[in-house]
Each structure stands twice: as C-alpha cells, then as structure tokens.
Amino acid sequence: MKKFEEKTIQTETIYDGKIVKLQVDDVTLPDGKTSRRELVKHAGAVGIIPITKDNKIVFVEQYRKPLEKSLVEIPAGKLENGEEPSVTALRELEEETGYTASSPTFITSFYTSPGFADEIMYLYLADDLEPVENAASGDDDEFIELLELTLDEARQYVNEQRIHDAKTNYAILYLETLERM
Fold it and tell me: Does the record bear Hydrolase in its keywords (predicted)?
C-alpha cells in the first residue's frame, strides 16, 4: 500500500447524471481504520485563453446557478466521451466565442477540487484567432455574453470579483507571467 493510499472497500452510486456522477466510497485508511468518502466523478474539462490580434482576452459572462450570480470567465467546457482536450478546446472556443485557432498551445492541467472531485481541467492558449463564418452554436440552455478585455481590465475584474473562478484566475496569472518575461 502506498504511503497515504486509501483502499476502497465498497462504492455506492448515489446519482449518475449528464455532467457528474455522485458516489460514496467506504475506504480503509492507512492506519487500518475505515471511513466514508463522498465523491464527484467528472469527465474532465478544458479552458482556453483566447487572445485577439489587438492583444485583448476574450471572456464570456454567464450566470452560474450554484453561486446565484454571473461570472466573467475564459471559455470552457466539458470533455465529450473519447474527445481529445485540444479538440474540446477548439470546439468550445467556436461555440462560445465564434472564433477558431489553428493551433492552440497546451499550457497545463490541474485538478479543480481534489478534496471531493476527480475533475481535471486542461488549459490552452489561442493567440491566432480567426472569426468563424457560421460558427457552431453552444448548448440550448447556455446564455453568454462576450467581453474583450485588456490584461489590466481583467485584473480589475478580479479585484471586483467579477472574475472569481480558479481557471480564469489561473489564466490571468499565466498571462501576467508571460508579460514579465
């Protein structure tokens, strides 16, 4: 057994939905005791940082029901079954912004909430944007508005908590790092 590994004794699926699966695992802890873990299983997601030719970042604003408010975020979406993250990045870019890019650059991946969920997010940069004629539309239940902001304006949105999610904050920190190089 690995140093901190917890061995699953039993898994009970509570809910199996379109986006998440909820389960409760009974586990044996490294010290031999047992405990329960409530888990969210997720297919994974992609976020993309779109940069226009005039060096603005394309964001989407949308209502987030769990928070009961709107947030300004980088375009993002769930991986479809068997879909490569780079394909998801381009699909979401087109659906949410009406842009495409020839070669998005992979930046990194990270776990969004490892204390209770297995969702992994892949982050890409697209700085060769081209508008798409007759762009694919997004989900029927998705209502978004586009914003193009400078990095300074995005920082102000962070201070105002209009940008207030991890993937978008990570994207802004990444762009700040590039700016310093």
Answer: yes
Exposure letters 55-76 (e unless 16+ CB within 10 A, then b): ebbbbbbeeeeeeeeebbbbbb
User: Do the Cβ atoms of 21 and 46 come closer than 8 Å?
Assistant: no
Q: What is the pLDDT of residue 178?
A: 83
Q: Does domain 45-110+118-180 have CATH number 3.40.190.10?
A: no
- Which pair of structure tokens corresponds to residue 167? 């993937």
| 77, pLDDT greater than 90 | yes
56: three-class secondary structure by DSSP: coil
Report the relative pairing of strands 120-126 and 45-50 from DSSP bridges: parallel
Buried b (16+ CB within 10 A) or exposed e, 88-127: bbbbbbbbbbbbbbeebeebeeeebeeeebebbbbbbbbe
Task: Name the segment(s) of the chain with CATH classification 3.90.79.10.
Answer: 45-110+118-180
Q: How far, CA to CA in Å, does 110 sit from each of 66, 72, 127, 174?
A: 21, 20, 21, 13
Q: Tokens 């304006």, residue?
A: 153
For residues 2 and 28, what is the distance between their CA atoms, to the nearest angstrom?
12
